[in-house]
Design brief:
Mean pLDDT: 88
Order of helices and strands: EHHHEHH
Structural class: mainly alpha
Shape: globular
Number of strands: 2
Distance between the termini: 35 Å
Oligomer: single chain
């Protein structure tokens, strides 16, 4: 059985998700959830830092938000 990788998500990563979502004109978490194919309840938990972000969803969010994975998770590099 494969181990599930969970990446800790700090408040700053959640803030980056929210900031970028709003920059793209995605004025609701639901719109981002549809674009990233992730439950809107999960988007809410990520944005508040209440849930750890798995690698699969981190990649989906980075793609949907048009940012690098490094920027999304660590704030490194360009958006």
């Amino acid at each position: 059985m494969k181990a599930i990788t969970k990446l800790p998500i700090g408040k700053t990563a959640g803030e980056r998700i929210r900031k970028r979502r709003l920059q793209l004109g995605l004025d609701s978490q639901r719109k981002l959830s549809v674009k990233a194919d992730i439950a809107s309840s999960a988007i809410s938990l990520y944005e508040t830092g209440a849930r750890a972000l798995g690698l699969v969803n981190a990649r989906r969010l980075a793609e949907a938000l048009d940012v690098s994975l490094g920027w999304l998770l660590e704030g490194e590099g360009d958006e």
